[in-house]
Amino acid sequence: MVKVCRSVVAVVAAGMMSVAVQAAELNWQLAKDEQGVKVYLAKVEGSKYKAYKGVAVMNTTLARLVALQEDVSGSCKWMYECREQKRVAQEGEAGVVYSRINTPWPVTPRDTFTEVVTEKAADGSITRRLTGKPDYQPEESGFVRVSKLEGFWQFVPKGNGQVEVIYQVHTEPGGSVPSWLANSFVVDAPFTTLVELKKLAEQK
């Protein structure tokens, strides 16, 4: 079982460095720009699956966004194809979340254990690094474990009651996934997730 406790200073330093390096290395191409959400895709060396990045500026507060994300079970309502989600560990700024993900027939549903480490920067922005932990617990019957997941959420206050939200992920879904499903997922996942989050975050 992965240990979630770690030095906050080391987490922040390593996390911000990994986010900066990852963003610099990937060649992002705009794939969709609708409803206030931009989706970018990038090839990842050594993988047949593309990374995705969704970006949206929302008329809301940082506190509202954090509250929506902290409701781990409730966030399934706005996360793309999320069937079930729960927090299974938390210590300080690091925790582990278990998620079950719907897939169209006949593809077997996926599940994942994701370590989530929260970092708070001096400018008020919040970054949550996401790292898949496929061996955190034994595989569940009826699900294929996502073999690799890396990414982050980032909330950046922009002033005038606005927050920029960035959602970036690259996964290796495990098992066999048809190309049509993989190609649609990398666009639909960030787009639908941010559209639904935007609706909730901007509710008066």
Automatic annotation (TrEMBL):
<feature type="domain" description="START">
    <location>
        <begin position="28"/>
        <end position="204"/>
    </location>
</feature>
<dbReference type="GO" id="GO:0005737">
    <property type="term" value="C:cytoplasm"/>
</dbReference>
<dbReference type="InterPro" id="IPR051213">
    <property type="entry name" value="START_lipid_transfer"/>
</dbReference>
<dbReference type="GO" id="GO:0008289">
    <property type="term" value="F:lipid binding"/>
</dbReference>
<keyword id="KW-0732">Signal</keyword>
<protein>
    <submittedName>
        <fullName>START domain-containing protein</fullName>
    </submittedName>
</protein>
<dbReference type="InterPro" id="IPR023393">
    <property type="entry name" value="START-like_dom_sf"/>
</dbReference>
<dbReference type="Pfam" id="PF01852">
    <property type="entry name" value="START"/>
</dbReference>
<feature type="signal peptide">
    <location>
        <begin position="1"/>
        <end position="23"/>
    </location>
</feature>
<dbReference type="InterPro" id="IPR002913">
    <property type="entry name" value="START_lipid-bd_dom"/>
</dbReference>
<dbReference type="InterPro" id="IPR028347">
    <property type="entry name" value="START_dom_prot"/>
</dbReference>
